Amino acid sequence: MERRKPTYGESIASLLVMVLFIFVGFMLFKLRVELLMIASAAAAGFLAWRLGYTWEDMETAICHRIMRATPAILIIWVIGIVISTLMFSGSIPMLIYYGIKIVDPQYVIIAAFFTCMVFSTVTGTSWGSAGTAGVAFMGVAAGLDVPLSVTAAAPPSATSCLPFRRPPIWRLPAWGSICTITSKR
């Protein structure tokens, strides 16, 4: 069987089948998501078989995608480990305690913005700074009755606002794995 590209209708139909499997199965029938994801993968495999791909082709493509996404996944795990370590050790609760004592309620949002901007610049990880200082300032805002929705917008805004700063470390492997960017060395 000769390989071919999917038509527009086949592409939309495959997405709709996967969404319907998960949405209908989980919301209406209360089935486990794992089972529904396997059914969605089977539907995608059936479409690939119709397009002329063999099992070996699909297996190779899956392994290649996992291999390319692994660095980004590992960086996200490490950032999660750092954030949870700071929470468990009491560093973030200490920041919340002193933030309530020191920061005036009218300056919480501005302080959250600039603190996260400095953390992001110094550490090179926007997720790490949003997960540490951002979480701490959410606690401060909750303790001082500052609007949480505006306070929640400050860390992500601050971590990506400096144009002269090098991009955070998590973006490089993530975009490289998504966009098939290869470095020239």
Can you put this structure into words, describing what you see?
This protein is an all-alpha fold. The protein has eight helices and no strands. It has helices at residues 8-28, 33-50, 55-89, 91-102, 108-123, 126-143, 148-159, 171-179. The two termini are 39 Å apart. Mean pLDDT is 85; it is low at 165-183.
Summarize the structure in short.
The chain has helices at residues 8-28, 33-50, 55-89, 91-102, 108-123, 126-143, 148-159, 171-179.
Query: Which runs of at least 5 residues are low in confidence (pLDDT < 50)?
Result: 165-183
* Average pLDDT, all residues: 85
Beta-strand portion reads under 5%
Structural class: mainly alpha
Number of strands: 0
Helical stretch tally: 8
The shape, in one word, is: elongated
SSE string, helix = H, strand = E?
HHHHHHHH
Distance between the termini: 39 Å
Helix content: over 70%
Rg, rounded, reads: 22 Å
Q: What about the largest sheet?
A: none
